[in-house]
Automatic annotation (TrEMBL):
It comes from the Bacteria. Residues 329-430 form the CBM2 domain. PROSITE patterns: CBM2 (PS51173). Residues 1-33 form the signal peptide. Residues 314-331 have a biased composition (Low complexity). This is Poly(Hydroxyalkanoate) depolymerase family esterase. GO terms for biological process: carbohydrate metabolic process.
């Protein structure tokens, strides 16, 4: 078996590739545009985390709060730049909190200590809870709409937050994590858990969550899980253990109430009580630990994918997206438009984003023809079903982002070799 040090080297060696692929180019911020701001005093913070907050320029009187938790060897600024949560905040009007590790040499969140695994016990989870409490008071945010999401170490912390602070969080979305308390122990790294060697009964896993806050009697926060079957860093076995844990916490059978395939190679199982889906789990066939983060799907699971009024200002959007190139739909089919933006460009490749906007009437589904320059090849994609990897590619919506109200928007993205110059996108409603 690999030592914990070797395992951590493997795990966080892949993260810089993710950051490089998804980092957005930031233009100078306009005076009216929203920006990432550090908050230096927000309450109990035993492990000296940093708090960064993104306040969209337009938001409702009682905005929702999303806590977006970074991976090891990352930080809040990198996760802000390299993920889609701030852009979605501009679109839907919620606040994003980005916690940032300062004390751990590996930049990982504490998901192992007895303090972090206990309600108001201390360490990183208490610091993040303090950030949420600060936001609820300072920004008059809605306590009924507070959510957590994260990748890898951030996914593990998402499990911790929902387990230890069910009074604060209403739902979570964990991308490539492990069950609550799977890392529990005296060391920051648990190689046995990371390797998928820890297996417990559903009751045992559920008891660990209930013991984190014995006095809690309210409704448990809903959970969404994502994991790649080829994950050799936080082994895919952890996905099944998470399902065992949360179905037990919710008092549900491990037999899903529904199973479907939202995208080729994905299997989604849902576990519901009545009409409420308490747990949603998406298995991604052949995908490694470096999985594409489905930010829009997480926001939809939280129920936040309803645009605010008025829409975010153009200046706020421009501060995060360089040189957009819009291609309207052909005459007579103007139910939607598609706008391509090269979100990040490097030698030999780029990340592209395509914004789909409904016209003056609502649509139930969309289809974008994405045309790449000769020689460009898509290696990764998210939030859309791609029919091919080069040339003229038909991209259709997924189940959660097809229906758009009049003037509403959604977005899909992709990573490609080559250059973005000459890329076009046209949209038709279907």
């Amino acid at each position: 078996m690999k030592t914990p040090t070797v395992l951590k080297t493997v795990l966080w060696g892949v993260i810089p590739l993710l950051v490089a692929a998804f980092t957005l180019l930031l233009a100078p911020t306009a005076a009216t545009a929203a920006s990432l701001t550090e908050v230096t005093s927000f309450g109990a913070n035993p492990s000296q985390l940093k708090m960064y907050v993104y306040l969209p320029a337009n938001r409702p009187a009682r905005p929702a709060v999303v806590v977006a938790v970074h991976y090891c060897h990352g930080d809040a600024v990198a996760f802000y730049n390299g993920s889609d949560f701030a852009r979605l905040a501009d679109q839907y009007g919620f606040i994003v909190i980005y916690p940032s590790v300062t004390q751990a040499s590996d930049g990982c969140f504490d998901v192992a200590s007895a303090a972090t695994l206990q309600h108001n016990g201390g360490s990183d989870s208490l610091g993040i809870a303090s950030m949420v409490r600060y936001a609820l008071t300072t920004y008059d945010a809605d306590p009924a709409r507070v959510f957590a999401t994260g990748v890898s170490s951030g996914a593990m912390m998402t499990n911790v937050l929902l387990g230890a602070y069910p009074d604060l969080f209403k739902a979570g979305s964990a991308f490539a994590g492990v069950p609550f308390a799977c890392f529990a122990g005296p060391n920051s790294w648990n190689g046995e858990c990371a390797s998928g060697l820890i297996s417990k009964t559903p009751q045992q896993w559920g008891d660990l969550v209930r013991a984190a806050y014995p006095g809690f009697t309210g409704t448990r926060p809903r959970m969404q899980l994502w994991h790649g079957t080829a994950d050799t860093v936080l082994h895919y076995n952890n996905f099944g253990e998470e399902i065992k844990q949360w179905t037990n916490v919710f008092g549900l059978s491990q037999t899903p109430t529904s199973t479907d395939t939202p995208q080729s190679g994905w299997t989604r199982t849902r576990y519901a009580s009545g009409s409420t889906v308490a747990l949603e789990a998406v298995s991604m066939q052949g995908v490694s630990h470096n999985l594409p983060v489905q930010a829009a799907a997480a926001i939809a699971f939280f129920g936040l994918n309803t645009a605010t009024s008025p829409s975010p200002s153009p200046s706020a959007s421009a501060s995060r997206s360089p040189s957009p190139s819009a291609s309207p739909s052909p005459a007579g089919t103007r139910a939607c438009t598609a706008t391509f933006t090269p979100a990040s460009v490097w030698a030999g490749g780029f990340v592209g984003a395509v914004k789909v906007t409904a016209g003056s009437t609502a649509i139930s589904a969309w289809r974008v023809t994405l045309t790449l320059p000769s020689g460009d090849t898509v290696s990764n994609s998210w939030n859309g079903q791609f029919s091919a990897v080069s040339g003229a590619i038909a991209v259709t919506n997924l189940p959660y982002n097809g229906a758009l109200g009049a003037g509403a928007t959604t977005e899909f993205g992709f990573q490609s070799s080559g250059t973005p110059t000459g890329t076009t996108a046209t949209c038709t409603a279907t």
